[in-house]
Amino acid sequence: MLQFIEYPKCSTCRKAKAELNQLGVDFEAVDIVQNTPSRDQLLDWIQNSDFELKAFFNTSGLKYRELRLKEKVPDMTAQEAADLLSTDGMLIKRPLLVQDDRIVQVGYRTEYKELNL
Predict the structure, then answer these.
(1) Radius of gyration of the chain (CA)
(2) Do 103 and 97 meet the contact criterion of CB atoms below 8 Å apart?
């Protein structure tokens, strides 16, 4: 089953979720703050996806700026990134689409209908 990992208060997540509903896609919604992905899960997603490491970070978030991650992320290993991301769901780019334990999409920049879900 498709997992839609979101922050329910996020307007982008709400827009993405509405599109999935409109397309009739069956999915399970998961709150990224209440159910932050584990370090091991994040590491697996990072290592087994075609997305670059930076794509997994919520670069517009307050915490990202507070921690000055713009300067740190380019030098991070996948393990270091997974360790950090697992500490706070708000650091993770959202929404995430996960199918069969693999990342399908990070963020919502393109319409889901193009993904052929």
Answers:
(1) 14
(2) yes
pLDDT digits (tens, 9 = 90+) for 97-108: 999 999 999 999
Reported residue count of the chain is: 117
The H-assigned helical ranges of 35-116 are: 39-47, 62-66, 69-72, 78-85
Instruction: Report the alpha-carbon distance of residue 43 to residue 39 in Å, rounded.
Output: 6
In a 13 Å sphere around the CA of 11, the CA atoms on its Cβ side amount to 0
Q: 2-57 pLDDT, tens per residue?
A: 999 999 999 999 999 999 999 999 999 999 999 999 999 999 999 999 999 999 99
Structure tokens, 14: 């709400």
Within 13 A of 60's CA, how many CA atoms are on the CB side?
5
- Alpha-carbon gap, residue 65 to 79, rounded angstroms: 21
Give residue 32's Cα distance to chain centre. Answer: 8
- The pTM score is 0.91
